[in-house]
Amino acid sequence: MSDSRARNSEVSKMARQPRPRLTRDIAAIPTYAIGDIHGRYDLLVKAEAAILRDGGQLPGRKLIVTLGDYIDRGPESAQVITHLMEPPPDGFDRICLAGNHEVAMLDYIDGWISYDDWMQMGSAELLKSYGLDPEHLPLVFPSGAKLDAFIRQSLPRTHIDFMRAMPVLLETPSVIFVHAGINPKLRLSEQTDEDLVIIRQRFLESRVPLPKLVVHGHTPNDQPDIRPRRLNLDTRAYRSGKLTVARLWQGQVHLFST
């Protein structure tokens, strides 16, 4: 095996390692969960401004949890990632969970999925945000291998590393924060990363009681989907212009959106 192929193999092995899972007690911490952003940097800035106004009335440090899917579909994926890599607002901590779109981008970089499969995720808009032309590139690089190599070399390594390090779950004594949901038939310790970032019907339609309130995104709706043990904050921000935020504090949930 050549040196370059060996390095690619090692990168792929790293990408398939289980992602971190965090635990934290937020009982005394006002916590703001932000739904799927999908390249809408403008809405993310507005949402954070609203969070700062709201949090200014509350005591102590606060926490922002972003629920994944920062990239694709909307026009400013690169700007969203750059912003999330910066320090959070004063008085706040921030946890950025992985979504299936971040996982898919890394799968493309590591050679697990093809360029065409990745483009079906709405990733043409992501490439444009990094200054690449997804319509012109295949003409310049008719060889798929050369096209892939150029794109992989052009995407910022710092952004790739940031996405690799994203945890896939935040568990608190009363709330689970995750991108897609959980498999209700399995204990949290048995959940696969794949379930946590792509599960849909088995989670949404299950009649098995959930162990805690699950705050998630992934399944788009016109309005937040509010259930006794489930709160879906994905409101199609990239298309609707509505990025939804939930504030959880002292056993209550308060919703607002851009």
UniProtKB/TrEMBL annotation:
Superkingdom of origin organism: Bacteria
EC class: hydrolase
InterPro entries, A to Z: Ap4A_hydrolase, Calcineurin-like_PHP, Metallo-depent_PP-like
MF-aspect GO terms: hydrolase activity
Domain Calcineurin-like phosphoesterase: 30-222
Pfam families: Metallophos
The EC number(s) this enzyme carries: 3.1.-.-
Keywords, alphabetical: Hydrolase
Gene3D superfamilies in alphabetical order: 3.60.21.10
Protein name, per record: Metallophosphoesterase family protein
Species per Swiss-Prot/TrEMBL record: Rhizobium brockwellii
